[in-house]
Design brief:
The chain has 222 residues and is an alpha/beta fold. The chain is 27% helix and 28% strand.
């Protein structure tokens, strides 16, 4: 059983003709986008809003028409993955480095759907290092402030140099062990000068499609 494929393709059932769809980034939502591309070739009429340059390229290769946020009033449904999901459907996202655009698009969506394989389900967020997008200027001071909040921050690197997001910023991956008050931490991190946003998505997911006991399971935020 390919869990990523199962949950990724299941999310396509929420996409209807004429919708504007937020297209997430990652290995699970890859299957969502691929399936949508097949349906577009068969006549489905949608417009996609990509969360990253990588997703933009994939959508174009599949023939999915794209629009920018400037061209639309709202997004009907956004579909994206997650690095961790807790029982209240709070998320850690940003392992792929696209957390800022993902959060902007999720916020603009009438319905935000998360696709996650069984490994992503946790009782408490935090064992996956929390990605934090920061501006390069003075990032060492930003790291110091993150550490003061109890994190163990580390600059994400690629090929020996700082990883750059599509927005030209750095990513700080910070372990917090257990995040028992995610809303409070999300707020406090975003109050640090130099932090653009962080990968805590609190109270944002409307639906999570996952695998439980080797079967598809759909969780809806109450």
């Amino acid at each position: 059983m390919n869990e990523k494929k199962e949950v990724g393709e299941k999310a396509v059932e929420y996409v209807k003709d004429g919708m504007v769809v937020g297209l997430g980034t990652g290995s699970t939502v890859f299957y969502t986008i691929t399936k949508l591309g097949q349906l577009v070739q068969q006549g489905l009429s949608i417009k996609g809003v990509p969360t990253s340059e990588h997703t933009k390229q994939l959508a174009l290769e599949l023939g999915i028409p794209l629009v920018s946020l400037d061209e639309i009033e709202q997004i009907d449904v956004a579909i994206d993955g997650a690095d961790q999901v807790d029982p209240e459907l709070n998320l850690i996202k940003g392992g792929g480095g696209a957390l800022l655009r993902e959060k902007i698009i999720a916020t603009a969506a009438e319905t935000f759907i998360v696709v996650a394989d069984s490994d992503k389900n946790v009782d408490t967020l935090g064992t996956f290092p929390l990605p934090i997008e920061v501006v390069p200027f003075g990032y060492e001071m930003t790291v110091k402030h993150i550490r003061e909040l109890g994190g163990s921050p580390k600059l994400r690197q690629k090929d020996g140099t700082p990883y750059l997001t599509d927005n030209g910023n750095f990513i700080i991956d910070s372990s917090f062990q257990e995040i028992t008050h995610p809303r409070e931490l999300e707020k406090n991190l975003n109050l640090i000068p130099g932090v653009v946003d962080n990968g805590l998505f609190v109270g944002m997911a409307d639906i999570v499609i996952t695998i439980k006991d080797k079967k598809l399971a759909t969780k809806v935020r109450s």
